[in-house]
Fold:
Amino acid sequence: MQELIQYVVDQFAENKDEVEIITEEKENSIVVRVILAASDMGKVIGKQGKIAKALRTLVRAATPKNSKKYVIEIEEKGGNTVDTDADEN
Structure:
């Protein structure tokens, strides 16, 4: 799944070498943190969050039925979480 997320993010990010993807497994979910340069935040999230929402839809569709749910968080380098899907559904 990490490869799918990396591929989609790389299509929009200009600073591909600064993109970090950190996966953390929790009890009921797998949290994927995408850390980007500040200049790439708007490009990857998209207007009104449309690209981020589409990425989450892709990941949800690619997740096997009985698997843990993936939660994608998009952060700016430096630790500010800008976009999360914790409240979606």
